Amino acid sequence: MRDVAVIGVGLTKFGERWNLGLKELMAEAGLAALEDASISSHDVEMLYGGTMASGRFIGQEHTAALMADQLGFGNIPAVRIENACASGGSALRQGYIAVASGIHDVVVVGGVEKMTDVTSGEASTALGGAGDQEWELFQGITFPGLYALMARRHMFEYGTTEEQMASVSVKNHENACRNEFAQFRKRVSIDDVMGSKMVSDPLKLLDCSPISDGAAAVVLAPLEKAKKYNDTPIKIVASAQASDTLRLADRESLTELKATKIAGQNAYRQAGVTADDIDVVEVHDCFTIAELLAMEDLGFYGKGKAGKAVQEGETALNGRISVNTSGGLKGCGHPVGATGVKQAAEIVWQLRGDAKDRQVNGAEIGMTHNVGGSGATAVVHIYKRAD
Ligand code: COA
Which of 171, 199, 234 is the endpoint of a domain? Predict the structure, then answer.
């Protein structure tokens, strides 16, 4: 196995990009990543593209070949990775494997979703495909509903409060204000979150990630060749993934995501680090409760302790651990196929020292955590500066 580095990253602004189609979004992010890596489209040997539900959102399938075509990659192999909201993180892992194995040198990993051309109801139905169609969606539950069940149980078992969940949203909106790519560059208060309309009790509008358009791309290369392209390659020191039951009702516990725990433990083992060593992490906060679950399942806090820590500012920018400096899914937006790749781009900027107003001082080790559905897939990567 070869060491793998990220040599380039690119993003589009997330949000309602009404004037851009899927192709244009992918081109904007992909070309930015190529430019960042100082390579041309002719250097690229393979493309993995994460897209969750483009067929349902805009009627377009076969998106990997489309991305390769749009980016001028010619006749290289291109494969779409669909793993619900973890499509981007799963695509990154496939790119990592392709480079680590020695099969390809320069691999582009893209992620894209165009979600805002349908109504919220249609988007909700499409996103529902990430759960068990027969036993969950057909019975009428949506994703806010599934996470609301987890939130209620967490409140019951550990005394977690709605205000603690709201403080996740306040923090992530604050971070998003510092991110030029974010969908919501506006601050919200605890009162704003608590007073926002109820979506699925106890989750309110401002506890939810939004419906978004957007794309992200990263360029991978073997570490030994990375310096040829980029002075500050960022090494991927762990790539781990785990699965769980698709149905929430089949889980032993509603207050942990076992796939996150397993992927996290494997990632720490591969990297030879512990949670205490991580300076900055992008976790999958599709709902505010999901950030608390992630912080606990990844070992940053004991069970039931993350809510208080967020409330006390421990996870704010340059707090004890900086969590979701991009604004997370809540503030930056959640174009589902793009999210896992965007998380990698944010950590690369942080470790290069290029994160501008949201820079974590002295960040050396970073992590990304991308979840599919209500936790049936979890992908965790750990990154280090390569110098
Ligand atoms: N956070 C903050 N503001 C939001 C928002 C969110 N999540 N979603 C919508 N808004 C804002 C819109 O910008 C709009 O503001 P405006 O009136 O100033 O333009 C307003 O709220 C109404 O937007 P609308 O699109 O009508 O909201 P909606 O009620 O149709 O949809 C949700 C809101 C929460 C239901 C929708 O965002 C949603 O389904 N989110 C979850 C997505 C999801 O499940 N992802 C997968 C996770 S596993």
Answer: 234
Residue 132 located in a structural domain:
no
**Domain shared by 69 and 152, yes or no:** no
Active site residue 177: no
Domain contains 204: yes
Distance CA 111, CA 3 (A): 23
pLDDT at 387 over 80: no
Give the pLDDT score at 284: 99
- Give the SS3 label for residue 385: strand
147-201 pLDDT, tens digit per residue, is: 999 999 999 999 999 999 999 999 999 999 999 999 999 999 999 999 999 999 9
Of 193, 131, 149, the closest CA to residue 331 belongs to: 193
- The pTM assigned to this predicted structure is 0.98
Q: Please report which confidence band the pLDDT of residue 386 belongs to, taking 50, 70 and 90 as the band edges.
A: confident
Mean pLDDT score of the chain, rounded to an integer? 98
CA atoms within 13 A on the CB side of 79: 16
Provide the number of structural domains found in the chain: 2
Asked if residue 59 is part of any domain, the answer here is yes
Catalytic residue among 85, 208, 286, 332: 85
Q: What CA dihedral angle connects 17, 19, 24 and 25, to 10 degrees? A: 0
Residue among 185, 205, 374 to mutate when testing ligand 1 (max atoms within 8 A of CB) = 205
Residues with a CB atom less than 6 Å from ligand 1 = 85, 120, 124, 127, 143-144, 184, 199, 205-206, 208-211, 286, 334
85 is catalytic: yes
Residues 54 and 143 in one domain: no
Tokens representing 157?
Answer: 């078992």
Candidate of 208, 246, 248, 334 to mutate for ligand 1, largest count of ligand atoms within 8 Å of Cβ: 208
